[in-house]
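Hypothesis: this fold can be encoded by more than one sequence.
Test: take the structure tokens below, design a sequence, compare later.
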């Protein structure tokens, strides 16, 4: 169940991440400035944000398997449209629709993990599940630049189409909804109560997670073009480094999840990650002129640190919301993150145009500093 959840989420992430690695081509060959190219790359992210809560509510009511399979098939249709129909305007439409469909796995696969794993193992399991996003970005970083250079924009969605079809078949055949506990009438009423009325815990996690996602998407959206245009790397070498750094980040999510199980808290490691994100973004602001080895090391560490919070926050939200609200709450959690991510393309693109890459990286470091102050002092669980 965990492997299928990771695969489904990774396939959706591959679709959503593909446009970010078209930015150099859009910028240099089609003449789009960074803000416009970044806005196009943000279209599927925006589409995802529109439907996360709806998919989560559907998973709460109808179960995870059908939601994931339907979303994968709809995303595959959007990928096929991107392959077959040329032109920027149709591409924008398919990116929006595919992003809306891919949100299904984001909301439902988290419920699969929470439902199948006991609390003492959820940090590890959710850390593995949260590998999905960096694994999808890694795949995009490795396959999109060479395909785009050789065959154009449309062909870059072929690997995504194949992955989506394969995962939809696997999930249809093998995925099973987690067991739902039988509750007494009193326990059912307690589990159905709105967890957002019980305090500010969930809202604080949603807010700080939206802040922490900005450094992460700054690197995934502009890391490649920074390496190519500012540090004079080749597109192939830059794509390889981005892919490696994202893979390291995927492993880091597992490590942080294991750490949270070991210390018995999601909040303490989350506080450490937020503080570390401040440090690595400031380091990126000064490393550009220090040589390729220094750039590679700092970017790899920064990519690992800036993705490490997701699994901790995701697990904390699911545990605090309880089984009757986890789908909706995870949808709200992801909606905030994806809305913040949508603003990264045009917003950070414009900031880079104003301040340069170093100034933009330094400015972004302020956001995890604020997030650090918002981390709740204690965990909360409905288990």
């Amino acid at each position: 169940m965990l492997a299928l959840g990771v695969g489904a989420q990774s396939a959706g992430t591959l679709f959503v991440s593909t446009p970010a690695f078209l930015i150099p081509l859009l910028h240099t060959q089609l003449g789009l400035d960074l803000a416009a190219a970044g806005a196009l790359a943000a279209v599927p992210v925006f589409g995802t944000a529109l439907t996360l809560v709806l998919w989560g509510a559907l998973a709460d009511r109808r179960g995870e398997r059908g939601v994931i399979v339907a979303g994968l098939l709809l995303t595959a249709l959007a990928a096929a449209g991107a392959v077959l129909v040329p032109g920027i305007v149709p591409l924008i439409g398919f990116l929006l629709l595919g992003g809306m469909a891919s949100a299904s796995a984001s909301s439902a696969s988290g419920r699969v993990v929470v439902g199948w794993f006991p609390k003492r193992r959820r940090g590890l399991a959710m850390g593995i599940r949260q590998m999905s996003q960096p694994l999808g970005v890694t795949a995009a970083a490795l396959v999109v630049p060479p395909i785009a250079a050789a065959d154009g924009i449309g062909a870059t969605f072929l690997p995504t189409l194949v992955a989506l079809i394969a995962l939809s078949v696997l999930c249809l055949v093998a995925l099973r909804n987690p067991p739902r506990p039988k509750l007494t009438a009193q326990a059912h009423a307690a589990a159905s109560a709105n967890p957002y009325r019980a305090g500010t815990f969930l809202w604080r996690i949603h807010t700080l997670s939206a802040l922490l996602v900005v450094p992460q998407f700054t690197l995934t959206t502009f890391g490649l073009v920074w390496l190519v245009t500012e540090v004079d790397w080749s597109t192939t070498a830059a794509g390889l480094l981005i892919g490696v750094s994202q893979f390291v980040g995927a492993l880091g999510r597992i490590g942080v999840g294991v750490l949270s199980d070991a210390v018995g808290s999601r909040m303490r490691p989350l506080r450490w990650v937020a503080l570390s994100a401040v440090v690595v973004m400031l380091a990126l602001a000064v490393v550009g002129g220090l040589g390729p080895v220094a750039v590679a090391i700092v970017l790899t560490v920064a990519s690992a640190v800036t993705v490490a919070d997701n699994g901790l926050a995701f697990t904390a939200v699911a545990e605090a919301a309880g089984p009757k609200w986890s789908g909706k709450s995870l949808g709200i959690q992801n909606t905030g993150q994806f809305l913040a991510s949508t603003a990264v393309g045009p917003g950070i693109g414009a900031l880079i145009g104003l301040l340069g890459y170093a100034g933009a990286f330094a400015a972004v470091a302020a956001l995890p500093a604020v997030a650090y102050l918002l981390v709740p002092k204690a965990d909360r669980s409905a288990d």
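The chain has 16 helices and no strands. The first helix runs from residue 2 to 17.
Hypothesis status: open.
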